[in-house]
Design brief:
alpha/beta, about 15% strand, single chain, Spore Coat Polysaccharide Biosynthesis Protein SpsA, Chain A, globular, 7 strands, 9 helices, about 45% helix, 7-stranded mixed sheet
């Protein structure tokens, strides 16, 4: 091979390496506790090809929070990286996932088929076009009959109203568990909660710290598998956390 050909080949390899290094990545962080009925469908819904077409590689991370069924096995079988968080708690699971995520953008959602992961390429495109830092989702505006129990709807209304009054943050669904945000903002959010209040506290921190935030309605779906939410216990716990955070130093 001629010297000029060698130089051209090396230059091309270098350019291709730079292009690969410039590709962005999305980390899907999904907490799971005994979700063997749904986890395969959840992972398969993640639109890897669509994300690749808009310039994003994909990392799927399932955070196992003490499952005793086949959740962990099925997650690995379907290509996910499994992070084991033995300390129970919704917030604890997410903290373990975020600590291990390497994507430029983090996408979250439950492992029970309720959240539309297939819509995420559009959300990420919107994030880029509007230079957003944090997107939260609204399950209630487009809620179909029978998808969410009436007691949960009432609880969501009360908690969201409390967020508006205590923090002057005008969102429609303070309890939604699907968020899309830049990983770079996570270290700047002082989220203390280890349990269910994690969701509302994350939103409060993102809005109060002045990041560019937006709420988007989604089509929330019927849950697959056993319901983990304890309406009264979690409702009281979330209410107390809102008050304590607002008036603490």
């Amino acid at each position: 091979m001629a010297k000029t050909d060698k130089k051209a080949s090396k230059k091309m390899m270098k350019m291709n390496k730079i292009k690969r290094n410039k590709r962005k990545k999305v980390s899907f962080v999904i907490p799971a506790l005994n979700e063997e009925k749904a986890i395969t469908r959840v992972i398969k819904e993640i639109p890897i090809k669509k994300l690749k077409s808009i310039g994003y590689d994909t990392e799927i991370m399932v955070v196992d929070n003490g499952s005793t069924d086949k959740t962990r096995h099925l997650a690995k079988k379907n290509g996910a990286t499994v992070i084991v968080q033995p300390v129970r708690g919704y917030g604890n699971a997410y903290k373990a996932g975020f600590a291990n995520a390497s994507g430029d953008i983090i996408v979250t959602g439950d492992a029970d088929c309720t959240y539309p992961f297939s819509d995420d390429p559009g959300f990420i495109a919107l994030m880029e076009s509007r230079n957003l830092d944090f997107i939260t989702t609204d399950r209630l505006s487009n809620l179909k009959p029978g998808v969410m129990a009436k007691t949960n709807q009432i609880g969501n209304f009360i908690l969201t109203l409390a967020v508006k009054i205590l923090y002057r943050i005008h969102i429609k669904d303070s309890q939604s568990g699907m968020w899309i945000f830049k990983r770079s903002i996570w270290p700047k959010l002082n989220v203390i909660s280890s349990g269910m209040p994690f969701s509302q506290e994350l939103k409060i921190e993102a809005y109060r710290k002045g990041f560019n935030c937006m709420e988007i309605p989604i089509d929330y779906r019927t849950r697959a598998g056993e319901v983990k939410l304890k309406t009264w216990r979690d409702g009281i716990g979330n209410s107390w956390q809102l008050i304590k955070k607002r008036f603490s130093r």
